[in-house]
Amino acid sequence: MAGKIPRLTAFEVTKILEHYSFTLISQHGSHQKWRNTQTGKQVIVPNHKGKQLPLGTLRSIIEGSGVDVALFHS
């Protein structure tokens, strides 16, 4: 994965995931499980309203989703 990681909230990340055919499978507390049935990829997004996701968490979501990091930029 190349490129700088943007600072995003969980809401922004889930909108991007929805755009790339991910659907919300389940939620336990503040953690949401998103899955793309076409690719079989699955990611967990901690949904702490209004807070930016930590860079390591966001990096893990991007890598796990298989979506290019450039597509996470506005």
Q: How large is the count of helical segments?
A: 2
Mean pLDDT: 92
Please, what is the CATH homologous superfamily? Hypothetical protein
Distance between the termini: 18 Å
Unreliable parts: none
Strand order of the largest sheet: 1-2-3
CATH class equals Alpha Beta
Structural features, described:
The mean pLDDT is 92. With 74 residues, the protein is α+β, with helices and mostly antiparallel strands. It has two helices and three strands; from the N terminus they run αβββα. It is globular and about 30 Å long. It has one domain (10-72): 2-Layer Sandwich (Metal Transport, Frataxin, Chain A). A three-stranded antiparallel β-sheet has the order 1-2-3.
Keywords:
28% helix; 74 residues; alpha+beta; three-stranded antiparallel sheet
In short:
The protein has 74 residues and is α+β, with helices and mostly antiparallel strands. The protein is 28% helix and 22% strand.
Blueprint of the fold:
Elements: H1 10-19, E1 23-28, E2 31-35, E3 42-46, H2 55-65
Antiparallel strand pairs: 1-2, 2-3
